[in-house]
Every structure is written in C-alpha cells, then in structure tokens.
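Model the whole thing, not chain by chain.
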Amino acid sequence: MHMNRRAFLKVSSLAGGGMLLALYARPAAFAQGRPAGPPLEPDAFIRIAANGTITIMAKDPEVGQGVKTMLPMLIAEELDADWAHVAIEQTDFDDTKYAGQFAGGSTATPLNWDPMRRVGAACRQMLVAAAAARWHVPASACTTTAARVHHRASNRSIGYAELAADAAKLPVPDVQTVPLKDPKAYRIIGHTQRGCDVHAIVTGQPVFGIDMVRPGMLYAVYQKCPVFGGKVVSANVDAIRALPGVRHAFVVEGAVPAGDVVPRDPGLMPGVAIVADTWWQAQAARKKLQVTWDEGKGAAQSSEAFAQHADELSKQPPAHVLRHDGDTDAALKNAAARVEAAYSYPFIAHAPLEPQNCTAHYANGHIEIWSNSQTPGSGRTMVAKLLGIPEGNVVVHMLRAGGGFGRRLTNDYMVEAAWIARTVGVPVKLVWAREDDMTNDYYRPGGFQYLKGGVDAAGRLVAWQNHFVTWGAGDEYASAATLSPLEFPARYVPNFTLGTSLQELWLKTGALRAPGSNVNAFVIQSFLDELAHAAGKDPVDFRLALLDTAPLPDAEADRQPKSRTFDAARMRGVLELVAEKSGWRHRTKQPGRALGVAFHFSHLGYFAEVADVSVSADKRVKVHKVWVAVDIGSEIINPGAAQNMVQGAIIDGLSELMAQQITLEHGRVVQTNYDRHPLVRMSQAPIEIEAIWRKTDNPPTGLGEPALPPIIPAVCNAIFSATGTRIRTLPLVKSGYSWA
Amino acid sequence: MRFELTVNGQAHAVDVSPDTPLLWVLRDVLNLKGTKYGCGIGQCAACTVHLGGRPVHSCLIPVERAVHAPITTVEGLSADGSHPVQRAWEEIDVPQCGYCQAGQIMAAAALIAQTPKPTDADIDAALSGHLCRCGTYLRIKEAVHRAAALAAGTPTDQRHAGRAGDGE
C-alpha cells in the first residue's frame, strides 16, 4: 500500500469495464437487535479494474478505530487479493446498499466478520469459475493466491483482472453456503496492515470532515445558550450583520424538548447563527454578539447540589429494585467481615480533537451533507424531519473523523448545519469552537454508588448491595445512566441487591467509550478489591474464587445468546494470563510502589489488566507499566492496529482517572477547554503498555472500547496497595493527586 | 489588510484583518488543510507549524506577526512524504484518528533538526505540549527515534522491517 492513493483511484475509475460484485448478507445480530431498515439491495463491495487494481469499499464511519482498513481486510482475505494492490474507497451513507453503517458499541467486527468474508469468498468463487471455464478444467482443480487463479496440473495461471469481465456474467453464489477459508491459511487477517489513510495523514491531505470545501462555501458558527435548553429572547443580529465578512446573522428558534428527561438526541436547539466569508470572521463577530436568554429550568442546577441530594437519597430505600437474590440484609448481618463504601464519579466530556463540524448545501428541496457522524443514518432521518423533506432527498457523504469516542453518535452539529444551509441557500461549513464542544456535549453521566458487601469466615463473597443514585425521572433513565442487573458480580453472589434512585437532570448525556462500563468497572472492581482485603485474600485469588462460583440461574440471561452473557471461564483465562505475565505471584513489597489488578467484560470482550504504579509522599502518581490480557475471540484481525488501540484505551482511561470532570454552576458548564478538562500528555503516559492476546474458539469481537474500563480500578487498587489509601472518588485531582 | 507571507517556499499576499490567527489564514485563505484546529488556546498544539524553523502554535500567532519569517506547514515538510519524520510515522503506523499527527510531526521535525539523536527525555520535553486524544504517545515516541535514525542514514531497523505484513 505504498502507491499514491489519489492517482491509484483515478486510474481504476477511468479504466472502466471490470466487475461489480453484487452482494450483501445481512448480519443476523443486526437484524435481531435493531429496527428493520428498508430491504437491502445488492451493491458493489469490490471493483476489479482492467489494470489489475482491486478496489474494496469501506462502508462504515472511520473515527480512528481503523475500520476503513479492517473491513476491507476481511473481504480481501477471502477474495485472495494482493493487499499491496488493493485500493480502499469510503462509501457514502446508503442504506439501500449497505447495512449497519454506524460506528458504535465496538460492533463492526462482530457484525461484519461473517458477511464481509462471504462477500470476498463469493467473488473469488466467481473468478475461479471463470478461469475453470476458460481452461475447460474443474473449478475444484484451481487455486488462488495474490489475485491470480492457478491450475497447477497444467502450470497455468491468470490474473483476476483478465477474468473480471467473464466472472461478472456468472451467477452470484449463495453467500450463506459459499465455503470460507481455514483460518490457518490466512495471509491478511491476523497480519498487521497499516492504516489505509496513513500516507494522506502524514502528508497533511484534507481527509477530515473539517477539511471539506465546496465552491462558494460560507462558514458558520452557532451560539447556543450556556445553560442547556435556554431560548433566545433577543439578539443584536443587525449589529452583527454589519461586521467584516459577515453575510448572515439570525436567530434560530429550535425546539427545547418537553418532559423531565432529556431525550437521547434532542435535535435542533435554539441559538444564533453567524455566517461569514471565513470561519475566523464568523468567530470574531461572535465576540460582539449580545444575546438575552431565557435560561429555563436548567439554570438552577449545580454539581454541589447534585452531590448533596444524592447523599440524601442514599439514606432512603432505593426507588427501584432492579435485582434481588437471596437475603442481602441477613447475609450482611451475619458476615464475618463487612465493608461499606460510597463511590462517585463526575460528568466528563468526549472532547474528540476535531471539533464538531458539518458541511451542507441545500437547494430545491434537496440537501447534500458532508459529515463525520458515527450515525449518518440517524442524522439523515433527523435532517429530513427537521426540514420536512423526504429522507431520499438527503444525501450524506461520510468523511474521516478526528476521533469519535461516542460524541458523534448524535447529530446536533448536522441538524444545525442543515438548518443554516437551508436559510442561506449556498454551501456552508459549520465549525464549533472548542468551547462549544466542551459546553454542549452529551456528557458521560456522573453518578453515585453506595455499596455494602460481606464475606464469610472462609473469605468468600456472600453479600453485595448497591444503591445506585443516577439520573432520570419516574422510571425513565437519562441516556447512558443505567446499570444492568446482569452486570458482574450479579449471579455470582448468593445475596445480591441492586437498587436505583433517580434525580432529575436537565443536561444532555450520552455514551462515551465503553459507556456504563467506564464507571461501573471502577466501582465494582475497586469494591471487590476492598472485599478481598477485608477477607484477607490475595486480590487475584479472591477474584478467581468468585469466578469459580456456579452462577445463579437467570431467566433474562438465559434468553440471550450465550456469546452475549458473561462467561466466567473466559474471564478466568485472561485473569490468570495477566497474573502470570505481570509476575503478580512474585511481586515484591516496595514502599510507595505496587501492582493493582482489575477485570471487566464489555462489548463481548474479556479484559484483565495489571498496573505497576508508584505514588510519592506528595501524591504524585506514575504508572510504569500496564499489562492487558485480551480475549476477543479467535482472531486479532489487524494486530498492529489492535495493539495501538489497546494502548490508546489505557491512556484514555488514565485521563478519565486523573483529572477529567465537568461540573455545573448555575446550570453552566465550568470547564470550557482542555486546560480544565485535561488529557494525559506524553510525559505522563505509562512507559510501557503490553497487550497480550489470548485467542479462544469464539467469533472475533470488537476492541475499540472494552480495553478501557479495567485500567481505572487497576490503578486505584495499586494506589491502595502502595499507600493504604482507597480511592472512591474520581477524578484523582479531587483528592490532591497529580501525575509525577 | 494586506500581508505578505512565505509559506512552504512560496510567496503569498493575503487580505485579512491583522488579528486573524495564522492558523485560519493557512486553512481558509491558502487552503492548506493539513494544519489543524483543536483548541484555539495553545493547549493541544494540533496547529503547530514552523515559523523561521521554530515550532509555534499557529492558533495564537496573529498574521501580522507571521510576516517576517518563512512558514513551513506539514504540506511543505516534503513534496512526497519523504521527510524522515513522515517516513517513520508511516512505517510505524502511528495514527489512530490522525487529527493531531500533523502537529506532532512538525514538532518532531523541529526536534531532530536541533537534536539529531534525541533521548526519551528530549522527546517528552519537545512533544508533551501536544495532545493526542487517541493516546498514540508510545508510537509517537518510537517514531521519533526511528525518524532520527532515518535522518542519520540508518538502514531499515529490523524491529520494524516486517511491520507491514508480519503476524505479530
């Protein structure tokens, strides 16, 4: 993949002829879990040009997770393409051709592992059939390597390019029965392939959403109320229109959602749009903007009041009991040792480095959109509804995103751009300032978890009670503010209670990388550590004993496919592996330095992690090394990219651990930029992060999210071992810690 | 106002207000999109370019202060991606999302121009002002060492010789 990609693609599209493969197999999991879309029609995944270039379509949003390289690898493997001569092309959003064009939930691998390979295998079979017909030999006597069909018996071979026109006339094989390779024969899957855009990135080519330019394009900013849901009473738009470069300035009424719980993606919020010849002119004009806001009910909120109210709620019985096994009260009373602990964690922002942006052009009832949304299909639906036009009149082009992390699962920037584009009638690029991004996020919900646990005289965990104080009203939860009644250690503790109480929140919340898990692993794995110490057990041994417990039967869990429910044997596998690789059993006691361990199951993946951490007397923390044992099934599709992803997830988790928090005062978000919502920097990162793959006989699953959750408790547990201080509140800066 | 800039060896005249940050002149007037906006306050350094050979935050430099020295952006580092830092970044496959990498690359290029054999501490000092939201710091550090070796004419490093196709 060293050729100049632009020249390469140009050649293949000029060459003409060739073959289009018309196939798509609907992933079963997708069909089960989500509303059915329009019927899928076949379309091109593979284009074989007369000059030998094979172009493979990448259908999913690329947000840095490497899917634009990974999905074509699956096709290329079964096609037996020569990877060095494969070109990759990003598709538009098109649900008449492609299924599941979204980036979320670490689902790209489990949803596409089977169908993408079948696309490649079916195409290969057609090429083989074409060669066999030409040579008058049985197809079974032919083999393929590197985009050529061979007939060994007669020592003949022919390239795919020469066969493409013949193959295109053949019937498409049944994708469900087309034979797939023995994994031992893989030449592409399981072998590191560089990111297909790496050359474009290192040479500064305009590949990101924010780089989009259209002829005659104007630039927009959009000012919303500093309090979520606030409406514009008046604004000095006439004065703004007189400023240099400004072409338009107007109030957008938008729609503040009704009800007590903010919907997942509430749509176009009220605000003021400024459209200018350049972005800087629009942004500079904004400094002169004066708006009188009706701030609404959000203005009374503060983080301090939330914490006080949570404490009050914790003293009352939970409003909802989500799970109740055995007799938790009696078991706690009779326990040999008991621990009570109150855990809390803050709201945090996604803050992908590329701020939210979207380019749109509206003309004659049609709109064309260039976006790096993680859910372009949902965005299209929202835009169509907002503008009152059919979805078919909305075209969404998919561009590379400078990070996703869940922020681009929602489409607020897209509906803003669409509305502004319709108003101004020429192409317009909306770019949010960083401050817009930080103060208008769908925040990872903060939360409060009040736990009680007990162990018996033998050191076994016999009681677990959690009162989770979270967000919502009645029995409706805020987005991403839930805790599953199946979350481990549910079913593994005989006396177990999970209850929730809700407080009202007027703020957008949403999924951030490993939603739920990125806080629940902190609480659960930290509290398990507390109980292990209370029991006088080694933290690994205590966890292994828990994993050896026979789980309680559970009707809900039993209804789910086995692959979706927690498998203690797989977790034991990674826990034992990480203990072995980190030298856990041979660790020595050093003042101020210790190992900490944690595990978590999420997104179908099993992760156990050990962190080697030192803490100085003045609470300066250094994470020296992290071991990450991974079970995501039978294959690591792109090992180099997978290692990169694991290392990044650990560093991301450390950012959440140390310093990130979003707080509210008078309903306003206090932190507006990276200075007060910091990321880990190079000098603060661990010196080494070792990913250890444990391949098991399970279908491959995703890696974007599940490596993150265990690192937070692993470090907290190490801090406890090193210092005797238990961390129950995130982020660490609240307790006086900083990076060494 | 009219300003004359030298960008990647070419003279340009731009007509913008004097307080316009160099970043937005590069991106929206000269259409050089490789230089990125991330924070606007010098926290992330995604906007790093060379001004007179030194790395600067182009989001904080008003255009009127960028007229006296030549400017180099990632597009001007080499004509074809052959600068040792770019080659090293590609060889080691550093990026995840890739958005911060132009800034990281410009800082690394300035570092090895000054310090041909940087230590880990040198690299930390030169690059800790740069945020990578994806957390690719370990690869960035590895790539800076590799770039230094490439710039010094070291042949293929065996550690990376097979990275494009190995089975790790």
